[in-house]
Design a protein that fits this description.
The chain is of the alpha/beta class. About 75% of the residues lie in helices and about 5% in strands. The chain has three domains: about 100 residues; about 140 residues, no CATH class; about 50 residues. The chain is flat and about 170 Å long.
């Protein structure tokens, strides 16, 4: 069985053929019903058969033409579909290739960023371990004291010359200062202590209730006051040290909390002449000490500078005398040159007169006899 193609109904030739066939059938039916007689019916049937055969031939040709056109259109349609499918496949392939390239690039970037994140994670891990180590150091009193001393030593060594300080200096009473700033009298050596109470400060920061906060403030105030009193008694010794000492706090946070919340402790330290310093204020203090030492050295070397100034003044005066002598020599030489020029001019004039006498000019003889000989200038020494 041949499948019916709906596209045949849209072809104008097929529609026309069907219309003609329908008209002929209607005409044949009319003839049949109008001619009841047998002879006429036979003739009509024969004519109708001829026309039907003609129509069948025409329809067969039309169907063949339609079939051929359908095949041509089908081939063109198949070719167009194949071309579109090929183009679509090419575009899909290009798109997949582009997406693959972009995905590879994105993966490479992601891998690089992951490497950076991995390195940052390692640094964070190392930093965390260092922070934990620092917390362990600050939790131990001896380690905390060593940490404060090392920080204090770094600051002192970076500002002052080696002759201006002494670490772990033993005093006359047997006390050992963490650092002794060797200043001349007055004011004299100044002791620097690097210990600081941290437990009470941690309790002050970790207090959760009002009662715990009051207790922590009282404990922190007592520890600071006791430390100030200890420094004043141990490191302020008349005749041996200056009348003041330094208390070093290696934490800016403790220093800020002390000045912000405990001004009475700061005033008491002033009364006992114990100056509380942080790393920043210690740097400023050491800079002032260095300026004082420099001024003292300048005063000590003032007599040498004065002697060198006197020697320089003598050298300048001696140079001025020698320049004056050289100027006089130049003036004498200038005068001698002028006298020589005068003599050469006179000699030239006499040579001209002698030439005129040789030519027989007697009018010049009285003039020659009247001219007295000029004595030659005495030779002078140019340089004494």
């Amino acid at each position: 069985m041949v499948d019916f193609d709906p596209r045949l109904l849209s072809d104008p030739q097929i529609i026309a053929a069907l219309a003609v066939a329908g008209a002929l059938l209607i005409l044949a039916a009319a003839l049949i019903f109008r001619r009841p007689r047998t002879d006429h019916l036979t003739e009509s049937l024969a004519e109708l058969q001829g026309r039907l055969a003609q129509m069948a031939g025409t329809q067969a040709a039309s169907q063949a033409s339609i079939a051929e056109r359908l095949q041509t259109q089908e081939r063109a349609l198949i070719k167009g579909v194949e071309e579109r499918l090929s183009a679509l496949g090419q575009r899909v392939g290009d798109k997949l290739q582009q997406q693959t390239t972009e995905a590879s690039k994105s993966l490479a970037d992601l891998q690089a960023r992951l490497a950076v994140i991995d390195a940052a994670q390692k640094n964070i891990t190392e930093l965390s371990s260092q922070v934990v180590g620092l917390q362990d150091i600050l939790a131990n009193k001896q380690a905390r004291g060593a940490f404060g001393e090392i920080q204090m030593q770094d600051l002192v060594q970076s500002v002052l010359p080696p002759s201006a300080y002494c670490f772990q200096a033993t005093m006359a009473g047997g006390q050992r200062a963490d650092c002794l700033l060797l200043l001349p009298n007055p004011p004299g050596p100044i002791a620097l202590d690097a210990k600081f109470p941290l437990e009470s400060y941690r309790a002050l920061k970790d207090a959760k209730s009002e009662t715990a906060l009051v207790q922590a403030r009282r404990s922190f105030s007592k520890d600071i006051r006791d430390h100030v009193v200890t420094i004043a008694e141990k490191y302020i010794r008349p005749g041996e040290t200056a009348d003041s000492a330094l208390m070093f706090l290696p934490s800016e946070a403790v220093y800020a909390e002390l000045h912000a919340s405990f001004p009475n402790l700061v005033e008491e330290s002033y009364r006992r002449r114990v100056w509380i310093v942080s790393p920043t204020t210690l740097m400023a203090t050491l800079t002032t000490v260095r300026a004082i030492l420099k001024d003292v050295r300048l005063r000590e070397q003032a007599h040498l500078i004065r002697a060198e100034m006197h020697a320089l003044s003598d050298d300048i005066q001696r140079l001025d005398e020698r320049v004056g002598k050289l100027q006089r020599h130049f003036e004498q030489a200038t005068e001698d040159v002028r006298q020589v020029r005068i003599s050469t001019e006179k000699i030239g004039k006499r040579a001209e007169r002698m030439e005129e006498l040789q030519l027989g000019n007697s009018s010049l003889e009285p003039e020659l006899s009247a001219v007295e000989p000029t004595p030659s200038p005495e030779p002078r020494r140019l340089i004494q």
